Every structure is written in structure tokens, then in C-alpha cells.
């Protein structure tokens, strides 16, 4: 299935590195997991936070104009999800930018410990690029090692982040009775931060940069009233090269097919290896509303498609909420991928 995707044309590509000054709490999507924290933030969460920061600085009128652009077919910005970034200050080399392992990618041929190889979920972008181009000589295990969910350089001697359990107290609104509960937070080690990629229309770049600086002060994720999630922008520069000539697309964001895409997917055969995740969360726009957004099931990062996904900006306003519309950004951010080339390596 091939589709023209004009929204991706005539835009500049950037990579944005974030260094956090405090722990983070990225709530998971199911109700029972809200107290636990992930170590990364999805593109849908990132967009919501950025739009709120945009509104805080520029006001309602300018924010509505910003969101209206997404309905014209030429959105101001398309975001990837955030992933871990490992700085290599000791060697002076470029940071290691981790990407999700594409669905269907088998790394067992490169490692003697099959159990550890099977756990790898994130790889350096340079390794993925070589695999997609059939240029890796089979020496992955000589330069890299499995470390939990990550394939890291052998020079990496510590965990990338630390999880901590924190106690919180909730008061019953009727009886004022107290109840202790626990949440987890994530603290990145000094050499680790998050990064994301974005395709941006030039005329919106300055305002988006400003919104990101405001977001750094406001904080990304949950538990912001405790000072969590504050960050500085470590780098903001053109995206590193990705020289893969493939007909497939590796998904790096949340993706919900547009009406046109769904219609085509229902009527014709299409190729894809994918995983799904739930997207939920609470409304936050100038204060804690305590209202949940509509839950969605979206295609998740690491999915591979035989066509160029587009996606859409979805209205997820809860019933009875009239303050403003609530959106979830499910526009697809992808990189070219080539599964066929990878099958011949190892």
C-alpha cells in the first residue's frame, strides 16, 4: 500500500536532546500501572505537554491557530517519541541514540547468550542503520553488549537509569482519612538523557523552541508539583544521517491511522509487523483537572509497515468537558527500513 504523504514535504529535520535536572515520572497507560513510571515519554504525551507550554507562553488565540494548522494537512511539527541518549564524553564521540528494536528483528545470531539477546529492545541507531543495509559483519558482540533492555557499547559500565520507590499520601475527600501509596520515579545517570526527533516547518521553529524551553521549566511527565521532570535542552541540531534505502517504514511514534488509511487497510492486503499500546492519561491545561482523556489503542514504536504511515490528530475530549477540545497526537514519525536486507546478515 503506497500513499502520498504531502505533510512530510518541505520541512526541516531536527534532533533535540534533553538533560533532566530532577527525577521523572512517566505514568504507564493502564489504570493499574499509573503509579509505576516508564523511562521514556511517548510522542503523544510529549505533544500534549508541548502544546500546554505553548499555550502558557503565547496564549489561547495563538495556540488555537497552532492546532488549526494540523487540520489543514500541513502540521507545524511532527514528533517522534523520546528515547534514551547516552553521551560519550570520555571518548569525545557522538552520543549513542537508542532506537526501538524493529518488530521481527532477530539478534540471536550475534550473541551466545540467547536469553540476553532476546531481552534487547533498544539498539544504537548506528547499529540499526548497518543492519538495514546488510553492512554489519557479524561483530556486534565484539563492540556491544546486552545490558537489560539495551544494547550498549562495551565501554558502558553502569546502568543507564535508576528506579526509586517514593511514598505518597492521599486523603479521602469525604472522611479526610489518609492512605499511603507508592509511586516509582526514574533518575537518569549523569551521561544519560532523553532525545526526540522532529520534522518542523521553518516558520514555526522559533515558537516551538520557545515552547520547549518553557516546558523545561514546567516539567515533563507527572509529579511536577514535587519538582519532577524539569530539564534543559542539551542540543538542538539537524538530525543525524539515516542512509537506509528501504520500502518499509520503522515507526518511532504513536500512530493511529487516518480515516483514509483505515479504509484502505480494511479493503486491501497490507504488510506489517507491529505491536500495540494503550494511550490514556489525564487532562492538564493550566492545572490538574483530574479528568481522564479517552483511551485509545495505537500502533507502538518499533512497528514496521510496508507503506508510509500518516496518522492523525485525534479529538479525545471527555464527554461533558467544555473548557476546550482535548487532542491526542497520533501522527506517524518514521524512518526508512529494510527487513529483507537484515535477513541476510549474522
Write up what this structure looks like.
- There is one protein chain.
- This protein has helices spanning 43-58, 60-68, 114-119, 125-132, 140-143, 205-218, 259-267, 339-342; strands at residues 12-20, 26-27, 37-38, 77-79, 83-88, 93-100, 122-124, 144-147, 150-153, 161-171, 178-188, 192-200, 231-238, 248-251, 272-273, 276-279, 282-284, 288-292, 296-299, 304-305, 311-315, 327-331, 334-337.
- Helix 1 (43-58) crosses helix 2 (60-68) and helix 1 crosses helix 6 (205-218).
- The chain contains eight helices and 23 strands.
- The protein has a domain at 248-341.
- It has 346 residues and is α+β, with helices and mostly antiparallel strands.
- The strands form eight sheets. Strands 1, 4, 5, 6, 7, 12 and 13 form a seven-stranded antiparallel β-sheet that branches.
- One of its GO terms (biological process) is defense response to virus.
- This is CRISPR system Cms protein Csm4.
- Residues 246-336 form the Csm4 C-terminal domain.
- GO terms for molecular function: RNA binding.
Based on the model shown, name its key terms.
346 residues, seven-stranded antiparallel β-sheet, four-stranded antiparallel β-sheet, 8 helices, globular
Q: Any idea what the radius of gyration is? A: 20 Å
How would you classify the helix and strand content by structural class? alpha+beta
Low-confidence stretches are 1-6
Helix content: 10-25%
Cα-to-Cα separation, first versus last residue: 30 Å
Number of helices: 8
Q: What general outline do the C-alpha atoms trace?
A: globular
**How big a fraction of the residues is strand?**
25-35%
Q: Strand tally, please? A: 23
Largest sheet: 7 strands, antiparallel
- In terms of quaternary structure, the protein is single chain
Compute the average pLDDT. Answer: 86
Pfam family, one: Csm4_C
Keywords: Antiviral defense, RNA-binding
Domain Csm4 C-terminal: 246-336
Family: Belongs to the CRISPR-associated Csm4 family.
Amino acid at each position: 500500500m503506497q500513499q502520498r504523504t504531502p505533510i512530510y514535504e518541505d520541512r526541516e529535520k531536527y534532533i533535540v536532546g534533553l538533560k533532566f535536572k530532577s527525577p521523572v515520572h512517566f505514568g504507564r497507560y493502564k489504570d493499574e500501572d499509573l503509579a509505576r513510571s516508564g523511562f521514556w515519554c511517548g510522542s503523544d504525551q510529549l505533544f500534549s505537554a508541548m502544546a500546554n507550554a505553548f499555550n502558557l507562553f503565547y496564549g489561547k488565540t495563538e495556540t488555537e491557530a497552532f492546532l488549526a494548522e494540523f487540520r489543514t494537512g500541513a502540521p507545524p511539527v511532527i514528533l517522534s517519541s523520546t528515547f534514551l541518549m547516552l553521551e560519550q564524553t570520555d571518548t569525545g564521540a557522538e552520543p549513542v541514540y537508542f532506537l526501538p528494536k524493529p518488530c521481527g528483528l532477530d539478534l540471536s545470531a550475534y550473541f551466545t547468550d540467547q536469553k540476553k539477546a532476546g531481552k534487547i529492545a533498544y539498539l544504537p541507531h548506528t547499529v540499526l542503520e548497518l543492519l538495514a543495509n546488510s553492512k554489519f559483519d557479524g561483530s556486534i558482540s565484539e563492540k556491544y553488549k546486552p545490558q537489560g533492555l539495551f544494547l550498549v557499547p562495551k565501554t558502558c559500565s553502569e546502568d543507564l537509569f535508576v528506579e526509586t520507590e517514593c511514598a505518597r499520601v492521599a486523603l479521602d475527600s469525604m472522611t479526610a482519612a489518609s492512605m499511603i501509596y507508592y509511586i516509582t520515579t526514574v533518575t537518569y545517570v549523569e551521561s544519560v538523557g532523553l532525545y526526540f526527533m522532529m520534522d518542523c516547518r521553518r516558520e514555526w521553529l522559533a515558537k516551538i523552541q520557545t515552547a520547549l524551553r518553557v516546558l523545561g521549566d514546567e516539567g515533563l511527565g507527572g509529579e511536577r508539583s514535587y519538582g519532577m521532570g524539569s530539564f534543559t535542552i542539551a542540543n538542538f541540531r539537524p538530525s543525524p544521517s539515516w542512509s537506509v534505502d528501504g520500502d518499509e517504514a520503522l515507526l518511532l511514534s504513536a500512530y493511529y491511522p487516518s480515516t483514509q488509511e483505515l479504509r484502505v487497510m480494511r479493503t486491501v492486503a497490507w504488510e506489517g509487523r507491529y505491536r500495540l499500546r494503550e494511550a490514556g492519561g489525564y487532562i492538564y491545561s493550566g492545572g490538574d483537572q483530574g479528568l481522564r482523556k479517552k483511551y485509545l489503542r495505537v500502533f507502538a514504536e518499533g512497528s514496521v509497515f510496508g507503506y508510509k504511515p500518516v496518522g492523525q490528530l485525534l479529538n479525545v475530549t471527555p464527554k461533558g468537558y467544555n473548557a476546550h477540545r482535548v487532542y491526542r497526537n497520533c501522527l506517524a514519525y518514521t524512518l526508512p527500513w529494510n527487513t529483507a536486507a537484515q535477513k541476510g546478515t549474522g
